[in-house]
Amino acid sequence: MLAAARATFAERGFDAASIRVIATAAGVDPALVHHYFGSKDKLFVAAIEAPYDPADLLPEALAGGPTELGANVVRLLLRVWDGPGRAAGLALVRSAVSNEWTARLLREFLVAQVLRRVVGTLDLPAAEADARGSLVASQLIGVVMARYVLRVEPLASASADELVAAVGPTVQRYLTGDVDLPGIVAPTT
Questions:
Q1: Which domains does the chain have, with CATH numbers?
Q2: Which residues of the chain have pLDDT under 50?
């Protein structure tokens, strides 16, 4: 079932994949998939072998409301990556850099499971939410690559508090501030 789920999520993306399609690909009844995984979200997390389920962690990031979202998202990212899930996360990121199939799964995880939920709390038009989410993704992926993969100093040895103070305001600006958004035409005055 997990192999069928990985292939289906990579091919169709999270939104277009259904438990019925995944079950058919695995040669099982959809009820069996529901029995073992409960929901499409949980199946997706299991399929990519994510060390954490975002549904369990995101309430912490969302708790401070829109004005604290940037700092809270960065704090959560660092807590996850500085924890026991780092090895699995590194393996996934390194694989995604050289393998389009893995990149597609990681992209779906980041967009469907994390960023859409974060940006969705801001009540934005869909195109604006997507643009802001992609900017946040660029910042978070940059931090992961520089701190954990490339180990660029002093970023690699900075404390979580230092990074939240340095990166949080940029993420906040991407989420709620004035920024030229990719793919969005600014209104003319």
A1: 2-47 (1.10.10.60), 54-176 (1.10.357.10)
A2: none
